[in-house]
Design a protein that fits this description.
This protein has one domain. It is 84% helix and 0% strand. The protein contains 3 helices and no strands. α1 packs antiparallel against α2 and α1 runs parallel beside α3. The radius of gyration is 16 Å and the shape is elongated.
């Protein structure tokens, strides 16, 4: 039983680290798409920037899964996969 709990804890820790490294990558994708002056409305641009800032704050706060989810919403508005 102790081994199972230890294995679960290690797996959880590794997952957090993996997600943490994805946040900057996804932020860079959003930044690059915005720098390319996408053909979206001003409202959509404002929403993307809001989501980008929220995702960065979540990343800084250690909420990596939430950060990736938030940044993915920004990517969807930009038409990125």
């Amino acid at each position: 039983m102790k081994r199972l709990l230890l294995a679960a804890a290690v797996t959880l820790a590794m997952t957090g680290t993996a997600l943490a490294s994805q946040c900057p990558k996804v932020m860079a994708e959003v930044d690059a798409a915005m720098a390319a002056n996408p053909q979206i409305s001003a409202e959509q641009k404002a929403e993307v920037m809001k989501l980008r800032a929220e995702g960065e704050a979540q990343h800084a706060g250690g909420q990596h899964a939430e950060s990736v989810a938030t940044l993915t919403k920004a990517k969807e508005i930009l038409g990125l996969k």
